Amino acid sequence: MAGSFWWSWCIATAGIAALHVDAPRPRLLTLLFFTVEPLLIFHAEQTEEEKFLYRLGPLFLVWANCHIEFVYGIAVWGL
Q: What angle do CA 5, 11, 13 make, to 5 degrees?
């Protein structure tokens, strides 16, 4: 079913955010960016359009200014 992926993604993201309610803001942004990054990579792979990969640059720029864990995102991108 096509809609089940997005429903599952929303539930998983809400669950992760609920577990980290008392966490500081940078950690929540890291969770958000870590979720967005694979979505961009997989979408670019499925559609075979490189323009979605160009959005990773600004994502990493904002991520690096918010939290040091952006290096994990670079590792995921490298894989």
A: 100
* Cβ atoms 37, 76 nearer than 8 A: yes
Give the N- to C-terminal CA distance of the chain in Å, as an integer.
28
Extract the tokens encoding 17: 């955010």
Report helix angle 25-47 to 70-78, nearest 10.
20
8 A C-beta contact, residue 59 and residue 36? yes
Pair of tokens at residue 6: 């997005």
> Distance between alpha carbon 29 and the CA centroid of its chain, in Å?
9
List, for residues 16-61, the tens digit of each pLDDT value: 777 666 656 777 788 888 888 888 989 999 999 888 899 988 888 8
Domain limits of the chain? 2-78
